[in-house]
Design brief:
By secondary structure, the protein is an alpha/beta fold. Helix content is 44%, strand content 15%. Strand 10 and strand 11 (375-378) form a beta hairpin. Helix 1 runs antiparallel to helix 5 (100-112). The longest helix has 31 residues, at 38-68. It starts with 12 loop residues before the first helix and ends with a helix. Residues 3-23, 25-42 and 174-179 have low confidence and may be disordered. InterPro entries: ClpP/crotonase-like_dom_sf, Tail-specific_protease, Tricorn_C1.
Length: 433
Amino acid sequence: MRINSFKNGLVLIGLIFMLTISGCKNKKTDINSNDKNENKVAEDSNANSKQADYLSDFEFAFDTLKTYYPFFDVNKKLNDIDFLSMHDEFKSWISECKNDDEFFDTMDEILSYANNGHTNMVPIEEGNFFHTIYFDSTFNPELKRISETYENPLVKERYKIVADYKLENDAHEGSGEKETSNVIAKDYVDGRIAYIKVKEMRIKRDKDIEVLNKYLDKIKNYDALIIDIQGNPGGDSTYWQDYLIPKITNRPLTQNVYSFMKKGKIFEDIFELYGYEDVTEDVMEELDFPEVTSEIAKKFDKYSFEAITVEPSEKSINFGGNIYLLVDRDVFSSAEALASFAKETGFATLVGEKTGGDGIGTDPYQVDLPKTGFVMRFPKELGITERGVIDELEKTTPDIKIISNEENINEDSKKKVLEIEDENAEKYMNKAS
């Protein structure tokens, strides 16, 4: 399961940085240097103490990423950014911060230079959400530890964590109307081409399933099915692993994936839980990845192999027609996982743009900053497909690329499917005659 809070990458980052956190980078010049009263001294002392806390938490966060973060090399290749070399510059920004809001915003901006949608400071309004979804993860010590992070007294106060778990959980149930609006199910061409749109891979999906079941049961003999995940930022991978694909497919599907991680104390439970093994020269030789992948993967300490298998459910429509998955640059996280799975297994023909990546792996890790109680989130695995493709580096390339603008990509993708299906129908008619 992956929970995603997608952010834009490097576009206009310098301008955004100046506009959003100028208070941290611009020196103040309107202070009366002759004001020496006791209140001023107390304020200065408090400010110095806060700044020391900010710098301490920055160093803690930076060292944590330096030890565990998997995508520094990917960022260099894609964006020509050497994150670790920017330490002193980042530190100078933090040294200008005068209050908690400025520190949080500056830290979040620093993390945006990693150019990864799973790397960010957790907003205050999302704390209860993360505490809730991981609260009952007794079967998984990794996820349970994330929930327990929010029970740390300083973090609990910072994020205003609700004491009563039931009340907290009920607050995130969401209304039925909201859940229903997450999906669209209708014919694209009456009686011939079915269309479903999934906006997010939601955890709470009872209403989605109700709508989709009713429609999918009706279209099982159609010529084609369009599954539209363009713009889908992700959510929970079980949405498609446990429901959507099992409801549709007429055969078992398996994708083999690899996860590479850096060693360290905070990941020891994960290595044991998922059966990670040491990365050695012999292992890399046996895996025989492409050179660009091997150059990066060999720097990691541990790796694991997983076969992701999805089988038809008892209530599967066993769809025998053509399946098309519409994708674009905003497909990310668990939606990206679906795109990668669909392409590698042949479940669907992908139509649209190259995706946003970072779909192979488990939930991003979260650590609390000791002095301020803010929480930082970051991915922990370098995900690699069976073909040896680093998902975050190369993303998922569609089988049929659509050259279009942001406004028209969705309609142009659907028109391409119609064009293909019309050609198929014409060939069938000619053959029959």
